Queue: 2 jobs
Job 1
Amino acid sequence: MKSQSNNSSLTMTLAACGLWITLSGCGGGATAATTVTFRPSRPDSLAAETVAPTEATADGAAGEPTTGGVGTLKGRIVLGGTYNPLPPLYAKSAAPKDNDVCGMEAAPNQAVVVNDGGLANVFIYLDKLPKGIQVPAAVSEPVVFDQKYCIFKPHALVMRTGQTVKVLNSDPVLHNTHTKPERNNEFNQSVNQTGAELVYSRPEKKPLAVVCDIHPWMVAYHLPLDHPFATVSGEDGTFEIANLPSGKLEFKLWHEAGKELEKAYKVDIKPGETTTVEITVPAAKLNP
Amino acid sequence: MPASEDYLRNIKTMHKVFCLSAVALLACTVWMMWADYDDEWRTYQRTALKHIAERDRSLIAQIEADPEFKAKLADLQAEKKAAEGVVESQAALKTELETAARDAAVKSSFHMRTLRVERAKRDVARATYGLGISGELPADQIETLFKAYQDQEAKVAALEAEYMQLEFTSSTAKAKLNELLAGEANVAKKLKELESEIDRRQAAINKIEPTDPLAAMKRQIMLLPIINGFNSPERIQQDWMPQLKIDLGGMSKVDRFDRCRTCHVSIDAVAGGTEPAFPPRKNPHDEAGYDQPYSSHPRLDLFLTSTSPHPLPKFGCTVCHGGQGSGTSFTNASHTPNDPHEAEEWSKDHKWFDNHFWEHPMHAQRFEESGCIKCHINVVELGHHPKFGATAPKVAKGYDLVKTYGCFGCHEINGYDGKKPIGPDLRLEPNSPEEMAKAAADPLTTAGRMRKVGPSLKHIGSKAPEGWVAYWTDEPKRFRPTTRMPQFFHLTNQQDELAERFNPVEVAAVAHYLEQKSQPLELLKPKDDYQPVVTRGLEFFATKGCASCHRHEGVPAVPGEQSTFGPELSKINAKLLPGAEGFEWLYTWIRDPQRHHPRTKMPNLYLEPEGKDEKYVDPAADIAAFLLKLEGKPADFKPSTNYLTDVVDPQTVDQLTQEFLKKLLTETQIATFLKDGKFPLPAGGIEAIKGDEIELVTADGTPISDPAELLRRKLNYVGRRTISRYGCYGCHEIPNFEGGRPIGTALQDWGKKDRSRLAFEFIHEYTHHSGQAALGVNFETVTPAIATRLKLEPATGARVTEQQLGVHAIPGTVQQLETKTPFELQVDDVIVVYDGQVVTDAAQLQGLLSRTEPGSTVDVQVVRGGEDLTVKLQPNGSLHDRVETGIGMAERGEFTDDAAGAAEEARELSAAFFYESLTHHGRPGFLWQKLRQPRSYDFKMTDVKPYDDRLKMPKFPFNEDEIEAIATFVLGLVAEPPSNEYLFNPSGPKGDWIRGEFLLDQFNCASCHMLDMPEIRYGHDKENEAEITSVDLETEIPNAIDLLKRLKPPVKADTGRTITFSTDEGPKTLPVIQFHGMVTAGPSPDDAPEDQEYIIESWNTAEIDQKLFPPTTKFNFLANRLEGITPARGGQFAEWLVSRLTESKVAKDKNAAWQMSPPPLYLEGIKVQTPWLFNFLQNPEKIRHTTVLRMPKFNMSPDEAQALANYFAAKDDAAYPYQNVPQRDPGYLKLAEHQFSSEFPDKDHDYLSESWKLLNGPVCIKCHFVGGRQVVSKNPAEDIRGPNLDAASARLRSDWLLLWLYRPTWITPYTSMPQNFPKSKTQFEDIFGGNANLQTIGMRDALVNYHRLMERDGRVVYDPPVAPMPDAAAPAEDAAAVNKDNSEAEGAGQ
């Protein structure tokens, strides 16, 4: 029946997405790998639904910044001070609404996620591009944003402007996906198993919240940018951004509980080298 | 020749005499003609015409300099040359064709001549034949005649044929020639078109300054005397308005003739659209612009032009401006200068003088809006108009002040003569419901509609202690500086010994009377053991809406004047009765205000207790506790101040009683009464006593023997008399004054009141020495040397050097705790602080003094002999001196050029204007001084009039700007309504709009609700596509877009203006667009200047370059491109609450906070059904579950509710009062059913059942109460819950509802309601085949037929099967259990 085919296409999409995330890493976030390497994507690397890559992305040279070579930034966000793990928003089978679905698992409080002292879900991105940087063309593959057991997956996500975000719903209940951007138009549609698509047309200055009004505890963060120099720290706080233009760069660090952690974190990227940093965030700065 | 018998006089002498007289007569005639010719207006007209010619010339030059024009002209000229070349190259052919054409034409015309003769001959033959017939000639003769005719006819026919041939040849030849010349002609035509504007302007110039010598001579001749009587280019321009009569002093009414345009030639000249052709000069230093009489009228969209509401031929000039329309000289026109400085200049330049003989002098510029209210009797549209904006803000402000301060309580402004409207109407409403019904039933009267502006004093005893009442009455501002209650005591006519003795007794007696007559009030109480929480009370005060009308020091103030609608409440804890009584009074007032005051404007906020057990909260008790700064139990409430009841001196009471009884009783009678308590009854007995004396009489008329009782009675009498005399009941409900009439002069025709009837008394003498803020001393800046001498540390302040000549130093009082000692400034006193401001030098102190409101009391800190004294002073200096200084400074140009200087100059010249008017016994001056210092007209009069006759007008806290606004309004009250055609008192939507605006103001609706969204104007960069994050309309259902265009018609965003701003690449110019929307983010100080941007979300549908931008489009642009933002009208409290809820994290974000706050009423008219709104306004049921406060119940009559409900529909051009819901009609449903069954033949239920099923599907129920089921929620505090859907069918208009379902954010951008059926998505395929459009329409149809379906189909649960969870054993069928039974869920969703 219908549900069967739905299921299989969903699995395919998920698998494809996983593959793509590993390749391009743009998806980032707590639930995904955090390496960012902007290699030309191969037309055959993805499932049918993706649009054929543009000429620019097919051309290898265009995938890398053209001036002065590129370098990699690697690092880890470390939480300074003591950390008490946050209790879940609700326990298993105790969801305030739609318990039969939402209560399948306890809902973790993702406002502060720390593993081995590393702080997850920190957005690390270039707020302003240095002058003269040619930005690689937009990625045409969609990024997947799912909802399962009434939790958004992933919790934190970076995407390019113009890139399609495939909003999925793996729950047998209705969700509505409601973005709260500052510079983009709001998106607010109810999403059932058919899913929906959303596209950000303008870059944002800071991550925006995505909520479900039906299940008020659900929240995730999106950051659409018009360049690829951004990522989200992983479960253990590690992150990596490759193919960064060399030179002195200023990164912005943003976290949902601490808001702007660093306005301009200065890093000197040398061509062909990997710069490793460790950034400590005092626990007092986080106010979930 | 000497005199003889034939001649009486010497004929020679006589010849000389005759000759001389002839010459003299001639000279006289010539002089007369010259004098007649040499009119003042000719000069103006000539100059104006010169300006017109100059302007035309410069426009021609402009056109000619335009590169585009130049290029086109060059092209056409080249084309012309080419065409001429073509013709030239075929010169031989041209000559040949021309010759042929000419020859043919000659031949044809020659032939025509012959033809005409022959035609005539034929006609003669025909006529002769006809005569033969009628003469009954013999047959043979007739035969001959007929033959003759036939011959001639044949001849003519042949010639005609020949002529046709010749004509054809001629036209063919001409056509051939034209063909050759066509190119040339075409270019010539294009050239003419291109230059048509230039030609038109040139023609206009030629009329004024002809270049052709012949025309110039002709014009000069036409201008000569005598000849100029015949269609001269310079002439008197006259407008005739037979409908707008002039009343010549009540003697006769004559037609109005205005000749103003004779000098103001270009007054209605437009440049294009309604832009003025000759814009007025913006300020005297500007080079651009024109002065009067050469400039065009301002706001030509509003005045003079034929498309404006006031076209010139219909209105003329003087009906609005005043003045003598028939006058053609500056003085005869009765111009009125705006200030004495201007008067001076006019008399120099125009020999101007004040013409007393014309009764309708022109309004001075400052009062030009006075004329508006002659026709605009409702006034509100002058202060705010949806199309024209604020057209007469000053007079509207005056009207608002009169309304707000309740002037009509004492001064009736009756806008009706019977039923006929004659002007603005401001009268108190009838005192009781019975009287109201009586007035409504009377066909000859129209009842007043204003409520008393003060609180009811009927139950004052259960509210405040008597001591407080006296303390307050004595000087209200002492208790509450922001109060609107005027000052009755301590004014200029109460500074003598008598008043100083009487006043305290009067005040105490008023308090005594009110206390004695206070009626008991049944108070509400919170639950017995309820312990109110102050902090929670603060939060409720802020969020439940109190802060929208009241301010309190504990809560940040809501900006805007709406939040001062109610009194400031910071000190309310010092006012109420101690203990539980005071607390309970406040609790009752908060919960049910009408209990204390049936006509209060304070609404019922539905502050009902909620919760159970530990969660039981009584918001009204908490708010009361917060306001009372309660510590402990309500019964422990202690007012922060104790007021002593003044002990009155019985002798003074007796003296006052005597004073008041003087006019009624003889001295002996009074003496007897004071001694024995025996009041002499009049003939009719006790019933005959109608006045306040009733207080002095016992019920049975027996004498009052108990001295204590007698004193109490006398005190009551004095109190009651005082209330009567001061007219307290004009603002307050007071026992025994239910039938009280306003005590002051009626104002409805005050604007034309005879000046001889104004009592100026000794005002000139008064103002010469007093009447202006100053201290009556001279002072100098403290230097270090002086500081050392006076042992002053640090060297600051102003030292008193001497007394001003002829001016008394102002006496003051030194505040030392409770005692007051008299004080007078002395030499060497140093003023260090004035009204809270540190005095640094003498000039600054002068400035502070000039800004002091006259008659106000100011705290001044003085150092005397090294000791600090805090002194209360009422600064008072010579008004005359101030005016002299002001005019002098203006004449010498001593005011600074900046805005502050201009404002100061305007203020000083304004004072000078009023002072001049006052000294010349003018109405404006009288009014001005009356409002500044109401009792000053009693100067020296107190010595010669009885105490009881002293002036009683209190002093209101108006500043001079406000006084001018009130004067503008009052001077416009002339009760001279024009003919009905001119009276603007519309019925229908316009009238409903006006009435609604009046009520919005009465109930302060605009504090909570945004009525107009902010308007944003900025330079839009078309090239930058990212600037507007538009919605892709391709993804929308076409029906939805059509509906959007119908309900929210696209507004053209282009303004036609441009803005220039600097960029890295130099200045750039962009077209300015405008639209309505909310600023979602503004420039942040943290950002670099080049990143400062605005992000604005539109609320209206905008059209830019024929492209449609639906609401919620976001506009992103850099801050330097902003032209301006017109702030929202109203909604300050909502915005304040949104920030508060966001900052305190009660709301997750701004959008969520908006959903918790009062909604903007943007396009409310197209949204709700008018009958529903009418009911809602009277009984506002709870609609939203997300808001932190509820729409309160206003103290509104059904009439008022109806008017307001109509207002919203009228404002948005929606149908009202009744709305059709076509989706309930059988016809509609039949058609829908037919379509449904043919499209889905397999269905075994009908269209509505299908729709009902969808409505009860797993969508709406997520947030709404629907179909008998309730939202299941364990956390109602966090859940977004929508309105119950059973109310939608009566509440919402069906089109609006459909658009809402299509795309909710197009209507309310901040809503949480998602778009449920987007075009791109197929869902619920078993319903309407998954067609999103049909599903949306079906949903709407189910909603409007909700109750019918609930009855017919009942409770339906539709839970379509869904895909099972990918990797969990979540049984899909369990989803059905999500929505629990209504009965089970009871309470959970509350």
Note: Confidence is low (pLDDT under 50) at residues 1366-1390 of chain B.
Job 2
Amino acid sequence: MSSNKKYWKSVEELNENSSIVEALKQNEFVEEIPTDKFLGNKDALESSSTTRRDFLKYVGFSTAAATLASCEGPVIKSIPYVIQPQEIIPGVANYYATAIADGYDFASVLVKTREGRPIKIEKNSLAPTNGGANARVNASVLGLYDSLRVQNPRKEGNTVSWDALDAEVTQKLTTLKDSGKDIVLLTQTFASPSTSRLIEEFKNKYGNVQHVVYDAVSESTALDAYQAKYGERALANYDFSKAMTVVSIGADFLGDWQGGGFDSGYSKARIPNQGKMSRHIQFESNMSLTGANADKRVPLTPSQQKVALAKLYSYVVGGSVSGSLPEQIEDAVKKAASQLKKAGSDGLVVTGIQDVNAQTVALEINEYLNSKAFDKSTPILTRQGSDKDVMTLVANMKAGKVGALIMCGVNPLYTLPNASDFSEGLKNTDLSVAFSMKEDETSSESQFIAATPHYLESWGDVEFKKGHYALMQPTIRPLFNTRQFQESLLKWTGNDVSYHDYIKDTWGTSILNGSSFNQALHDGVFVASNDAETITDAKKTEVSAIKTPDAEVVEATSGDAAKALASSVKPSAFELTLYTKIGMGDGQQANNPWLQEFPDPITRTSWDNYLTVSKSDADTLGLVNTHVSNGALNGSYVNVTVNGATIKAPVIIQPGQAKGSVGLALGYGKSKGLKTEMQTGVNAYALYQGFNTIQSVTLEGAAGEHEFACVQLQNTMAGRDDIIKETTLEIFNSEDKEHWNMVPVTDYDHNEISVREKNADIWESFDTKIGPYFNLSIDLNACTGCGACVIACHSENNVPVVGKREVRKFRDMHWLRIDRYYSSADTFKQEQKDLEELGTFELYTKIENASMENPEVAFQPVMCQHCNHAPCETVCPVAAISHGRQGQNEMVYNRCVGTRYCANNCPYKVRRFNWFLYSENDEFDYYMNDDLGRMVLNPDVVVRSRGVMEKCSLCIQKTQKTILDAKRDGRVIKDGEFQTACSAACNNGAMVFGDVNIENAKINELLADDRMYHLLESVGTKPNVMYQIKVKNTTES
Amino acid sequence: MSSHYEAPFREPLIIGEKSFHDISVDVGTPIFGKASKSWWVAFSIALVAFLWGIGCIVYTVSTGIGVWGLNKTVEWAWDITNFVWWVGIGHAGTLISAVLLLFRQKWRMAVNRSAEAMTIFAVIQAGLFPIIHMGRPWLAYWVLPIPNQFGSLWVNFNSPLLWDVFAISTYLSVSLVFWWTGLLPDFAMLRDRSTKPFQKKIYTLLSFGWTGRVKDWQRFEEVSLVLAGLATPLVLSVHTIVSFDFATSVVPGWHSTIYPPYFVAGAIFSGFAMVQTLLIVMRKVCNLENYITILHIEYMNKVILLTGGIVATAYFTEFFIGWYSGSPYENYTYLSFGAATGPYWWAFWALLTCNFFVPLTLWVKKLRRNVMWTFFVALVINIGMWFERFDIIVIDLSKGRIPSGWAMFQPTFVDIGTFIGTIGFFFVLFLLYARTFPVIAQAEVKTILKSSGQRYKRLREAGTSLEGTATDERTSAAQSTKQLEAKKDDKAAKVNDLLGVLGSFDSTTQKEDDLKKVSGIGPKMEQVLNSIGIFTFIQVSKMTKKEYDLLDSITGSFPGRAERDDWSGQAKKLIN
């Protein structure tokens, strides 16, 4: 914007005829400077009487002045652009839409870049599907700057050029063409139309090419079941927002079940709307995130799950099955069945049992119910792996039938249970090329490592679900000498086009159907238009029409599926359920310190995986968890044996774990391609035999004690009712809000008054009416505890990683944490009642220890509450924390001397102290100590030095940017424009941030909501963060 | 001060046959003599501890507070515990020197110098902690309201920590001035007695040109009174303000209106315990048993009993109110059932045992006057008071309002080393003080020597004139005793002469008369006469001019009075 403003320098300018103004136009000074007088007369100068002393004074002064002037801080040179790229304005972020498709996580995302560096991943709100970024996706940006990335193509440990690699590989492939040996592409699931086409071309060129798709965490059974029933190798797509009664049998659908991403739909149905919310019944053995959110959770072993599913089928659909269940579970299954029947098409059944029959049964029940949530037109394509193919491949390799093995996105030597077989086979393979970003277990054993770029440096396309496409574009030039898999395939097939052009071509011919590629690239997503969809639908109907008899056959045999399922149950002493953690997934991001330090939402333990054991089993086996005197957690070790494979794992006694079952997370125990600090946990893939997450195991106590890094050791709320408030739908619908959302009272003039009244307040309140005034609302019903916000906050605010040793000392730096509480009794209500009825001299253990059987679980994200009467503000001796006009408590890092009084006085315990220098310190070898890792830092947020307190700022840098943008554009800020990193990252609508001074803003609605309450309201801190009471649908019918 | 009268039945405050000169000699001995071996041993240990502490502090400042055992929940632990503990110890000095001065408690004079020294050294230790516990101690000066060019950059007057800065610095400076003022005449005495030129020069400088003129003394006493007046409120205010660090917060267990008086009592309690600990050792090592007597120890034990009682009352009040409130947040405060049975049960019981049960034994007079037991109790109280602060800080913080943040604290070697370092530093200072400073306020003690000294008390009791007794000629105690014996013999002879004339009183056959009926004989004179052996009117009636003179020379009081009042005449009348 150009400006015609004229800045005046003096009042003299008002006088048009002023001689001074005129003079100043010509000369710098109004009057001539009498330099001649001073220097002109040489003779006078010679005879000038500068004495020796004066001379020395001048010399002395000028030397001192020159010396002082040269005292500057170290100069850091930056090189300016010779030609500045048009789109890059220093200090202004650019956003690019792209997609992640690493074989495990598939999402359409927005990448924030600053000065050409991608620094943050955000969800792509334009994406109708898979637009949500989970914790891992949020953290994936750090992988770009991983200092252990392979920077060049390598051959047997030595750097080679791409040309040399190409020459050798193509030569080898050509010789293999006629040798009768197979060329095998062993890849992750790409779900990419262009890659599929490319592989087809590659197959055509070399003939004997096999493409084996391998998912480290397999969904093969579900794919098989779906394929058998619907003829497509895909996964059923469920829209949980349409399911009012959800019965899940062992499906952690809020976690990574069948690709994940179901949580936002689920949360939509969980917010009570006109007295209605969904009802969720969970049957499971491990305490999963899903079970923790359920209205009713039934713990049972995996084999009981099978019977329960079969029985559920028989109760809902009909028929009878064998097998028996304990009375309580039987009853729960019956009730679930009756609720499902009542719900009809509002019902939904999902299962995570890795058994084709089980998956078939679930599909059949949904079919029978005609479930509205089951969207058959858009099956999920993000898992394609086939267990059978992988096993065949391993056998072939061992037999020496495989001539060339080209791998991409897989790490079988780490993820295969029979890794030694694969390793043997690899040695029998003539050519092995691993496309990898790391020198990991597999790539380091392969002949060639083809260094691949990070997805933020790559082109690509994805079809998440049928008809739902996304484009992947580079957001930065490749940092290293890398080349992506597809680019190499193009080269090896002798195709000269770049992959970018290839994608464009693919899309132009078969996807876009006339739409603009640039628009699709801009949006990052493309949904096949209605026409296309109808075509697909038509095709579909055709298919299903053809398939109908088939399907009936399946159905006819499917009563059998239930029967077969029930009869397949083999009882064993202990059943292990392998699961994935929301923070680590299948383990490919194990070298990501953000994810390592991310506390598991359930156990709140970071930097580890562990065997979860029920209390009664732990007692039988003599396993213990102990708190050491600084409050850290220690646990016994146990040897876990599956079919002869034994691993020694530490134990966490998990409340709610079904008796006779144990759980262990995959994705840990990686040993190559990652820093020593990141080599945590045990490799559970060794027990993942037959790609089945359920294994029967034997357990045996082992010597030693494991040190955990757990960020929360007190697991209950100790009967306190001011922290997480909860009620049931029944009470919520039938009683006044005073009954279920009581405002604390205080004494005033011998009367009880609400703490919200003016008289309860001894402080003057701030003027909140000028400019924006921010509030943040957190809906405990919508929050599933997934932790995407935690990582988003980490990434936005340069929150340091402190490492396992420090976390163990209770010094994690998370500005935003998600507290998880178990009830000490069966419910939180009972726990509060227990406390009230506790005798004077009765021990508090009753309310302090979580119920081990089946506790109620609740999550609560807690960040700085930005109190209007902030206890931290009054106690700082140097006023380093003060209240801002926009509602924030503003922490002034530069002013902080680090007395830590504020943190002591904070009732919410959200302040974090920099105990050490976490950046540029090799004691903390995570990412802030190398130049590459530091590229991820957000330049808008200062990196705190040691000795200062830090905390959530409500992303003041983001709100300020919004204000300045609006100011520059001269417009009014609309509701929804203001976002914090956490509210922007929340896929479930649990966090709403906004300006209360915008009329009709959503935040005002929430502020006035009946469910609104403040954390620890009785303290009188008047926070600007509010919570919405948790409502549970406990109605049994 | 010299107008002091002390009732005869009071125990003497200075025992042994001390003369004024003896006091000068005794006070000067540790300074002019050579250090004993035990001093060197003690000093070496203290120095090593001090250097270790310096090492820990350097490590902390150069690496970060993370080398301590603190965490995101318990952000203060040993640092502030030690701070409050040392400040508390520093309270006895001012109480003894200022409050007891105003209350004219003469027994303070033997202990005040060392108590004040202890105060100053303790406050120095205390002052260290708020600085080193900062995340960025090099910016510690930011807590001072120093004018700067940033305009609005100013300290936060709402913060109790800022009040602490003022309280501690005021306390240190007033204590130091008060201490120094009292030292002036004593430094002058050392200056006068010193024979080494360098030493003389130092003490000349330190004594600020004290000459001992009357004007000097007058001003000295005036300044002492003014400073006492200034320091007295500080006794109450400093720990009140320290308690505000906790009381004004919103932490359950800290937020308590009882804190200011409770903290002040606790501070005096711990301060006296520390004085006991130090003086019991010092009186032995420096041969000061004659100045710091069992009586002093008992007096201090009584103060400990009183303040300990207040503290115990506060404990029970805290416990009761916490329970009575019914608030679940009060379930785990440092004095609660939750603390007693929780993970910090040992700290809870250590507090009660050390500060409540053990000091109760001082109610027994025998134990109160037992040096070894007192020493033990004082040590236990020192430990107990440390636990009190530890409990308040760590137990209260460890179980705050949000249970997810509950955590415990474990000290690292740096925490422990820093604390030991300050103890070392304290003893380094104290041991150096004991070798270079007059450890007894000799000028003040001399003012009460005649009224409270054992020797003078005895002389007075014996009715001997004190005239001339103060100006002995470089005598030792043994010689003066002999002279006294001689005088005593002399007196006995006169009594014999007198009774030879008047006739002795036989209680078996005769009856005592009420001599007070004789006008001029009061109850006191009656006692005097009785002590000589005069009980009856008959004896009195026999007195003539010669006997009157003899009587006057024995009693030394009211010469010529008996003659004027004509006691014998009156007695004769009374016989009839």
Note: Chain B touches chain A through 59 residues (CB under 8 Å).
